[in-house]
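Extended Data, panel c. Modelled sequence:
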Amino acid sequence: MDKSFDPRSIEQALYRQWEDSGCFAVRPEGAQPYCILLPPPNVTGTLHMGHAFQHTLMDALIRHRRMRGDAVLWQGGTDHAGIATQMVVERRLAAEGRSRHDLGREAFLDAVWDWKEHSGGTISSQMRRLGNSIDWSRERFTMDDGLSNAVTEVFVRLHEEGLIYRGKRLVNWDPVLHTAVSDLEVLSEEEQGSLWHFRYPLADASGHLVVATTRPETMLGDTAVAVHPEDERYRHLIGLEVELPLTGRRIPVIADDYVDPEFGTGCVKITPAHDFNDHAVGTRHALPLINIFTIDARLNENAPQAYQGLDRFEARKRVVADLDALGLVEKIDDHRLMVPRGDRSGAVIEPFLTDQWYVKVGPLAEPAIRAVEDGRIRFVPENWSKTYFEWMRNIEDWCISRQIWWGHRIPAWYDADGNIFVGRSEAEVRERHGLGPEVALTQDEDVLDTWFSSALWPFSTLGWPEETPELERFYPTSVLVTGFDIIFFWVARMIMMGLKFMDDVPFREIYITGLIRDAEGQKMSKSKGNVLDPIDLIDGITLDALLEKRTSGLMQPQMAKKIAKATRGQFPEGIPAFGTDALRFTLSALATTGRDIKFDLGRIEGYRNFCNKLWNAARFVLMNVDGQDTGLGPELRQPTLADRWIMDRLRTTAAAVTAHYDAYRFDLAAQALYDFTWHDYCDWYLELTKPVLNGDADAAVKRATRHTLVQVLEALLRLLHPMMPFITETIWNDVKPAAGVDARFLVERPWVGTDDFPADAAAGTELEWVKGFITGLRRIRAEMDIAPGKPLPVLVQNWTEDDQELYLRHRTLLDFLAKPESVTWLNPGEEAPESALSLVGEMRLLIPLAGLIDKDAEIARLTKEIGKLDRNLEQSESRLANESFVARAPAEVVAKERTRVAEMRAARSDLGAQLERIRAL
């Protein structure tokens, strides 16, 4: 093995070997099926930290189950991402001075397909970099012929049952893209605005009402003023009319519980065509719907002529100015409000009344609710079922049409009279309705919402509507790993569609992950400029290259500088190459159930060190077994206490890790593996083997130790493999000859079972005594600043015959690792000089300090350390005493400072006690 671990030299070549060898294909045929669906990322996209997090957890489950002998399918693929992909290609055309309308629909779609074939595979390549063990031979795309057929089939069947209809309703409208968008494609953030208070004169000239609004331009579409029915200030006005300024129209005063009497004046303008809440009020009161906007949010012919053609924000200025000229502006207040913007265009989203296609979801939602209630589907953590129920029990019909060209075109045709015909093709429509060639038919221009096709993902990817072997074998799938933000948009719709068309749930369990946040707890987003690219973490990136990313909006300059500051100067030149395994293990270790993750570069550096620790341990093993007898033959093996102990610890660890995987506690599995690898195997067992391997132990003892070294390492690599596939596969390839293993790849080896290694609780108890003796002396050395190699005289008090027997039995180990100069067993009542003390159970280890240390030098050293600690403690306590700091600083920063103070106080107490002991000598 190389002296150091270099992930860049192994990862990509190793992945190609796995893929070319068919390691990720479904096998064996007769085994228990286990299937995970990859939430299909956008074909336009690149891997972000959310992908890296969820994909790591999915791949760990997949590799784990594959090693447990299940017939595993990780179904992968990408989504056509209608709006996002169309925008990419339109921007490319715009750079050439052309638009999609210049090309026409067919030529534009050809251009999109061409872009997809040549540039759309970036994210699939990046998934390979992450180690995703997807069966790439089965990779699907939501606009593949098979999936497109499934989409058409579902649309037609739902329409035939009356569950798809066309109607005029209010939608989220993007005035730049000229299409309806889903709620998930709307980003609402607080912005500074104004709250205008206008006077609406009563029609009988007896006074006026004052209404408050954040959108003055929409008042031109008002059809009522609403007050609360119990509001004594306005009850006498209910049923009267007001003059709507600037329009020449009269509108009624109505009563509705929607109005909050405590907000503003308690009078609310109602604009049913341009506000979702107002639309609900308008429906209850049968108010007219007046749409005053065009598709690009300009004032249309329903507005007064003076405003027609104006952009909505220009119209806002004109309306306010004209009302002010009429003396109808009561006042204007500064006001913070949530502004909805399209996530692709950045334009302010407009509630807009248009004809769209809808799914009537009520009949589909009821069985989907029951499936979770009766336990056919289980949420992990369970509390997310409450969110699911809340959404599903208040569900509204689903707008599935989009006014773009890229996507699944709606299978509906219109004749010259506007009659609508739905079918799988125009030929089927003509045959079913008896329409001859003389009847001109035009297909609907709209395409389906991307979420419509992805709702069919669990069964369309397996071949539905054909009755395929894969569909029979892998549906329902085993578990869905996804984020809470798409429980409604994707998860719920997959459940509804699966129950409708497969008569069964699409998955048995839903593991909901948290969000990846930055080290300060902020959500990673382009707008915040705090996005970390997982490929940068894997390969490394210079600070200059990070700064260049500001042009893409992914990382602002201050974020790049923040990286160096946040890691206390560890990475002043940028991000080093941590490698895939360190990233994956970090994400696994942080995956506490249901909680958001603060991603700190300090953690990934720590797990890169863990990779190095594992690599160096393997080098130690191989150097000590190369060309030696590793106990694979019939010759006698005589295990030491350490051999028996480490095998018992491995057995316990394997059982714990298996249980944690079954419970989706990736964090606990990672912690158990880390503790065993670093502390049990590396820090203790490897050290305990050195006296055997380097001493004059019997051949059977050495043979057993070499056998245990190799067998435990080989099993440990199997346990670590699902989370750290590259380094474990590389080491295992060197270890397998010594372990007597005949297999192509570690990924094909079986999981470690509890029966693979013997239980030996007695060995654990005995070795804990040995460890206690060694660590007791080591602790005294550390506390008293005594050189590690200096032999120490040891006095033993309060000992038993068992203690003495254990010491004599393991004296070789204790002499090698604890380095006592002598061991004196004091009789009961026998006094000892001033000594440092350590306990091993009830037995007391005493180290006389006289002559071991320079008393004056040690007092000076401790006094200096205490002084430095006192200064830092004073600064931190002063900071926490500052009310302004506590009130304004992020909660995480304050909590961190309080933890630091507690740690410094504890350290101050320990150093003070140590100083008093030295002075007493």
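The mean pLDDT is 92. This feature is highlighted in the accompanying rendering.
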